[in-house]
Write a structure and sequence with these properties.
Length: 223
C-alpha cells in the first residue's frame, strides 16, 4: 500500500530544492560572495552545478522508488508517440547545446580564466532553437517528463517541475535583462517563452536584424 507521507516528503524535497537552487543562482547572493570571498568566484559556477546535481539525485531516487499504482500508461500507438516525443526531446537538448557556451555553462571557463565577475560573460546570440522558443532546454524537459508513464509520485514531480520552470524562467530572464538590457526585452516580445507558438518566432532574417541592432547600439571598445 502507498503511504501518503511519501508524497508529502517528495513535495517538500522538491520545494526545498527549488528554493535553494534559486537562491544560489540569484545575483544578490553572487554579489555578496564576490564582496566577501572574491577568490571563490572563479569556482562559483562549478560549485553551483555540482551542488545542483548532488541534491537532485536523492529526489529522483525517491520519486521512482515510491510505491503506488500507475495513474496512466501510454499504450499502443500512443506509446509510440510518447516515446518518439521523448527521443526528440533528448535530441533537442543535445542539438540545442550548440547554442550555448557549454564551457561557461558548466563553469570550466570561469575556473580556467580566474573570472571573478558576477555577470555571465557569454554575449547575447540566437541559435536556431532560440528563434522559436526562449528556453529550448526547458521546453525539451517538459516534453520529456510529460511523455512518461505516471504514478502519483512522478505526476507530483512533473507538476512541481513544470511550475518551477515557469517561475524559474521568469527569474532567469530578470538576470538576462540585467546582463543584456533592451535587446533581450525586444527578444522576449518576439519569441515565446516555454512553449513554441506559431505566431511568435523569429525568421533567420529577423534574428540577424535583431543582432545587428544590438551591434549598432554597442559603443566601440575604449569609447
Amino acid at each position: 500500500m502507498y503511504h501518503p507521507d511519501g508524497l508529502g516528503l517528495l513535495g517538500l524535497s522538491w520545494l526545498g530544492y527549488f528554493v535553494l537552487h534559486s537562491w544560489l543562482a540569484s545575483l544578490g547572493l553572487k554579489r555578496r560572495v564576490a564582496r566577501r570571498w572574491p577568490a571563490f568566484m572563479p569556482f562559483y559556477r562549478l560549485a553551483f552545478n555540482l551542488i545542483a546535481v548532488i541534491l537532485l539525485l536523492p529526489i529522483l531516487v525517491l520519486t521512482y522508488s515510491l510505491p503506488g499504482p500507475e495513474i496512466w500508461r501510454w499504450q499502443g500507438w500512443s506509446a509510440w508517440l510518447a516515446n518518439g516525443a521523448s527521443l526528440l526531446a533528448v535530441a533537442g537538448v543535445l542539438l540545442s547545446s550548440g547554442g550555448y557556451d557549454m564551457r561557461e555553462f558548466i563553469g570550466i571557463r570561469q575556473w580556467q580564466n580566474g573570472t571573478r565577475s558576477v555577470e555571465d560573460q557569454e554575449s547575447f546570440h540566437l541559435s536556431t532553437f532560440h528563434r522559436f522558443v526562449r528556453h529550448p532546454w526547458y521546453f525539451c524537459a517538459l516534453v520529456l517528463i510529460w511523455s512518461r508513464d505516471m504514478t502519483a509520485a512522478t505526476l507530483l514531480s512533473s507538476a512541481l517541475l513544470t511550475l518551477y520552470f515557469a517561475i524559474g524562467s521568469r527569474l532567469e530572464e530578470q538576470k538576462l535583462i540585467a546582463y543584456h538590457g533592451e535587446i533581450y526585452r525586444r527578444y522576449m516580445e518576439r519569441v515565446a517563452g516555454l512553449l513554441p507558438l506559431p505566431w511568435k518566432y523569429l525568421s533567420r532574417t529577423d534574428a540577424e536584424n535583431l543582432l545587428k541592432s544590438q551591434q549598432a547600439r554597442t559603443p566601440p571598445a575604449g569609447s
